[in-house]
Amino acid sequence: MSAPVLEPTEVLEPTEVLEAPRADLPLRLDEFGAELDAIRQRVLDDLGERDADYIHQVIKAQRALEVGGRALLFFSIIPPAWLAGTVMLGLSKILDNMEIGHNVMHGQYDWMGEPALYGKHFEWDNACPSDQWRHSHNYMHHTHTNIVGMDRDVGYGILRMSDKQPWEPYFLGNPLYAFLLMVLFQYGVAVHELETERIRAGEIGFADKTEMLRETWQKVRRQTLKDYVAFPLLAGPFAPLVFAGNITANLMRNVWSYTIIFCGHFPDGTREFTIEETENESRGMWYYRQILGSANLTGGKWFHIFSGNLSFQVEHHLFPDLPAHRYAEIAPQVREICERYGVPYNSGPLLKQFATVVRKICKLALPWN
């Protein structure tokens, strides 16, 4: 029997973040995990034509936005055309990164058998090489979610995002580093594997990362030539306007991606863990950690699509290999299970969640926090 289908416009209301789970939860984690496994299996058993149609429609929309946006930029001497073209190109980049690239690279559509949608071979419109992303994100982050010292997404090697991270004077710049990471997010992700925190500590040097830097430079160079040389040159006398439109579109994508991702991992109510806390964890405990380390965002159909359905970050961390457009359907089921077991389920509107993220970034810049 397949999971009940809800309209994608249905939203989850914010829920109170509980301070602690039920006292008997440790004795029931296997049962808790089994119920979540059952949700996953129901979706897997129901995968089919509507999932294939969905991703094909999103790809078609992304390509139309990109072609239309770039075409309008070539006529950008007319201000409305520049604005429309820039917005369309920015939206196409958001779809390519969030709803297509990120989700396809998780293997969510491998079952379709289409080479273009095979996660291990997919390359996206981003400065970060896909192979590096698959290691740092799909493996390191999703296996060791919010474990300080193992999950490098906790601060991206740049920020202090947990009080479990020892303070050092460098972190006084936390708000500035966060702003720079936001506007340059694709490049921050591209150097994720550089392990800047280990370089700062003197544990490794740049020479140890030669191959990684070579691959990253090749991808950054290709992206730079495409957006800032090739397309502007094709526009002839309108080259400066096309150049500006491409920069603005990339900025749109960077700021939006950063905001959605940070709101899914670091608002009030989310937890980080020590390595010792997660030793020998069971499947149920792994699920429990994913939920405590994640937060959802409330919104409507288009908000969820353009967030890559990472507005359902809880469900994504539980089931990263399920097609993300299914998260809206299973979120009420996951929440109901969490309520029965007394597990905190963090959900709230974007602005509220982001405000708490900004507060955390500023707070953790100081040595007494």
UniProtKB/TrEMBL annotation:
<dbReference type="Pfam" id="PF00487">
    <property type="entry name" value="FA_desaturase"/>
</dbReference>
<keyword id="KW-0812">Transmembrane</keyword>
<dbReference type="InterPro" id="IPR005804">
    <property type="entry name" value="FA_desaturase_dom"/>
</dbReference>
<feature type="transmembrane region" description="Helical">
    <location>
        <begin position="170"/>
        <end position="190"/>
    </location>
</feature>
<keyword id="KW-0472">Membrane</keyword>
<keyword id="KW-1133">Transmembrane helix</keyword>
<dbReference type="InterPro" id="IPR012171">
    <property type="entry name" value="Fatty_acid_desaturase"/>
</dbReference>
<protein>
    <submittedName>
        <fullName>Acyl-CoA desaturase</fullName>
        <ecNumber>1.14.19.-</ecNumber>
    </submittedName>
</protein>
<feature type="transmembrane region" description="Helical">
    <location>
        <begin position="228"/>
        <end position="247"/>
    </location>
</feature>
<feature type="transmembrane region" description="Helical">
    <location>
        <begin position="71"/>
        <end position="91"/>
    </location>
</feature>
<feature type="domain" description="Fatty acid desaturase">
    <location>
        <begin position="81"/>
        <end position="347"/>
    </location>
</feature>
<keyword id="KW-0560">Oxidoreductase</keyword>
<dbReference type="GO" id="GO:0016491">
    <property type="term" value="F:oxidoreductase activity"/>
</dbReference>
